[in-house]
Amino acid sequence: MRSYRIASIPGDGIGPEVISAGEKVLQVVAERDGGFKLTFDRFDWGSDYYKTHGIMMPKDGRDQIKAHDAIFFGAVGAPDVPDHITLWGLRLAICQPFDQYANVRPTRVLPGITSPLRHVKDKELDWVIVRENSEGEYAGVGGRVHQGFPEEVATDVTMFTRTGVERIIRFAFELARSRPRKKLTIVTKSNAQRHGMVMWDDIALEVAAKYPDVTWDKMLVDAMTMRMVIKPETLDTIVATNLHADILSDLAAALAGSLGIAPTANLNPERKFPSMFEPIHGSAFDIVGKGIANPIGTFWTSVMMLEHLGQPKAAQRMMRAIERVTADVKFHTPDLGGKARTDDVTEAVCATLQGDNT
Ligand code: IPM
Ligand code: MG
Which numbered ligand comes closest to the C-alpha of 250? Predict the structure, then answer.
């Protein structure tokens, strides 16, 4: 029997609550499938670890997880630790060296959930955002001098490499090709940013020539926000830079009904390193310990993890169970306007999986 080792990093805030829920449903889907086994190794890295050790994860942290089949990540960020420390010390410290350059963020209005867009019917909002995840505005290049003095200067340099841009655009074309509509929108801001973004446009043209079966178009990021709201049905697969896609994916999650549902996969498509799966929502300290975190984002990211591990049947079964549960408003957590608790949703998904005889 195929056996997978998963490195669980629950992290901060509601991370541990949703990761526990995720491990539970994953075990049930594995048992139900019968063809594979999952073992979870837990790592207590994050802001509490930082408060004791002065670092977000041990020096050899990446060595400890590099042989795992996947990383199951909760959230990072705490009110009393600066965000740039938590982000660079853990999440980016894993994503960048493990070359998880493709960040994939599917968005759909799941059954039972209402989009804030009045005119949108269920099937009309079905997108996958591909976020460049290794460079761009998150390259970490820059500096700050003369701190606190009137002549203080700070820079954040956006870096785009031909290799980095080419591989993400190719990835996006492949993904678009694998979806029924075979449609890709490439987002830039090449009117204002006249070097890197113009290179994106040039490379898009070159790569597109190899995908004649994919229909594609170009959008400026500001106009893209309008199109997402006004004509969501005209979009399918979307690719954008690290920062642009970060912003667009929050908009996408909100338009789909809640940030609590949205999943993400940080992929190393060449599989030289493990890929990392996480809900988008973050640590949400305002609801920590209340037992009301929405676990759906984590369940959906588990679906992506199962697909990546090569278990498409289990992934489909899990997605079906999620959709059956969201269809019932009784299982909506407060972010969706309901009263359900994390445990209610988790048990409902487990029970649906156990009762699924297909
Ligand atoms: C995301 C988040 C992170 C990001 C934060 C937590 C730094 O917003 O995954 O979208 O900007 O990458
Ligand atoms: Mg974000």
Answer: 2
pLDDT at 356: 83
Ligand 2 centre distance from Cα of residue 249 (Å): 7
- 76 CA: nearest ligand 1 atom: 6
Taken in order of first residue, the domains within the chain and their CATH numbers are 1-100+261-358 (3.40.718.10), 115-256 (3.40.718.10)
- Kindly give the parts of the chain with pLDDT less than 70: 122
In this structure, which residue's CA is closest to atom 5 in ligand 1? Answer: 87
What secondary structure letter does DSSP report for 1? -
Pair 115, 255: CB distance under 8 Å: yes
Helix ranges restricted to H, 231-341: 242-255, 296-309, 312-326
For residue range 164-178, what is the model confidence (pLDDT) as tens digits?
999 999 999 999 999
Ligand 2 centroid–CA 157 distance in Å is 19
Q: Tell me phi and psi for residue 13, to 5 degrees.
A: 60, -130
Of ligand 1's listed atoms, the one at least distance from the Cα of 243 is 11
Find the ligand nearest to 103 CA.
1
User: In this structure, which long-range contacts are made by residues 76-84, counting pairs with CB atoms below 8 Å and at least 24 apart in sequence?
Assistant: 76/11, 76/12, 76/15, 76/46, 76/47, 76/282, 76/283, 77/12, 77/13, 77/47, 77/282, 77/283, 78/12, 78/13, 78/46, 78/47, 78/48, 78/283, 78/285, 79/285, 80/47, 81/47, 81/50, 81/51
Ligand minimally distant from the alpha carbon of residue 251: 2
Q: Which atom of ligand 1 is nearest to the CA of 246?
A: 10
HEC secondary structure over 92-119: HHHHCCCCCCEEEEEEECCCCCCCCCCC
The torsion of the CA quartet 199, 205, 211, 214, rounded to 10 degrees, works out to: 100
Give the residues surrounding ligand 1 with Cβ less than 6 Å away: 77, 87, 246, 280, 282
